[in-house]
Specification:
Keywords: Signal. By secondary structure, this protein is mainly α. Helix content is 70%, strand content 0%.
Length: 205
Amino acid sequence: MKSRSIVMALVLGAAGVRPAAALDPRYPDWPCSQAKVPEISLAAVWAGPPLDDLAPRWRDDPGIHEMVARLAARRTPLADAEQMAADFLAQAPADRTERGKALFRGLFDRLNAERSTVMSGLERVTRKQRRQAEKIRSDTLELENLQEATSPDQAKITQLSSQLAWETRIFEDRRHVVRFVCEAPVAIDQRIFALGRAIQQAMEE
């Protein structure tokens, strides 16, 4: 009975865990401690020449398109990406301004889209966690009722206990993943800003 009480306490404790409370009521499914900023504006990360007219055109240049993919990849260290951008623009000094503008427009479009995908995924996981928490609570109450029955069905108790342990493990694993992934939008913001600054500096050289 003592071991059963300990297991019940652990399960009930896990079932009571909820996704992080939303800091902004406009975004009830946002799980991160950082405030949700749905979109980054160009003006917040770019102080160079206007880029609005380049929105669709940067994709038409194979060299720009390839470089955008390389610079946007987070597996590429930021310092390396900054140097790669500078080297790329130095290859064509006469066309440096236009290439720099197209390069950053491509980076902005690609990283902003990636950021939106990550944020949507976080909110989708939060909704799953909410449903999972309700399932854990429901199954915990059912297990408690089975254990307190006059003639307990031990086979069913064992099956439901195993199911609860698995559900709780999934819940906790997701919670840890969410904490880690919450850093991704911040890292993307920092990458956009840093690469924008590096490109502007290279354009002015």
